[in-house]
């Protein structure tokens, strides 16, 4: 009897130690906040190191320009000109991503509902997904000319496949009990998809959306090689052709900043939409 009571007390003590106490939450939050600030400072530290290495002639400035030189070049280009390039790329990314993601939701939802349709289309989609972005350029030029249509189409192709894979995988991983509940209420395929399958697949869907958005920024560079006169991809190509590494690296930095900004917005939407999730964080902060 005494051994049983001692075992129960030992188990209760271990549970209390494993459960985070209420006053530990602010401490953990402050610690994590410091790591967030460190993460934001890390790129600045990296740029500072590159600046020092270039000024000390450890890195050749004709291949790796100093960050201060890049900033000076961007400032000399003027805010209006830079805004024109950033706005052109952003419009193409948002339009292409919207079209590609919408098509992926429809096609992925249909393939997730129908095993036969998935067996029919999946081999072709996997083959198309392996085609590099630049390989689509001559095809789209032949089909659509040199206007905005081929650029947006290429971005849509880049956004389609990761969202499509996320939708199909998310639907296939939905708890069987939820599907049986929909069958009990006699939900048709469309209502089953809208009321049960897509909401349950939202976490994986948002992962696909964020991946598709990042790929849209990658594909827009290839898209702006199609007779473009504006955009960050055009700026990148112009810097390469004129032998201006400061312009090349400036365009790369702007692409990175815009990609981070749009991903941050998508992440904020994800946190707001999926506020109902009750998930772990993988352990307490170290």
Describe this structure in words.
80% of the residues lie in helices and 0% in strands. It is built from twelve helices and no strands. The chain has helices spanning 2-18, 24-55, 67-77, 79-113, 115-129, 133-144, 148-172, 176-184, 189-200, 202-223, 232-241, 245-273. The radius of gyration is 25 Å and the shape is globular.
List the main descriptive attributes of the protein structure presented here.
286 residues, single chain, MetI-like fold, mainly alpha, 0% strand, 12 helices
Share of residues in helices: over 70%
Supply Rg: 25 Å
| Distance between the amino and carboxyl termini | 40 Å
| Biggest sheet overview | none
Q: Helix tally?
A: 12
Structural class: mainly alpha
Mean pLDDT: 83
Number of domains: 1
CATH architecture: Orthogonal Bundle
- Examine the coordinates and then state which fold CATH places here, giving the name of the CATH topology: MetI-like fold
- Beta fraction: under 5%
Question: Could you name the ranges where pLDDT drops below 50 across 5 or more consecutive residues?
Answer: 282-286
Number of strands: 0
* Element-by-element helix/strand order: HHHHHHHHHHHH
**For the record, what is the CATH homologous superfamily label?**
MetI-like
Assigned CATH class: Mainly Alpha
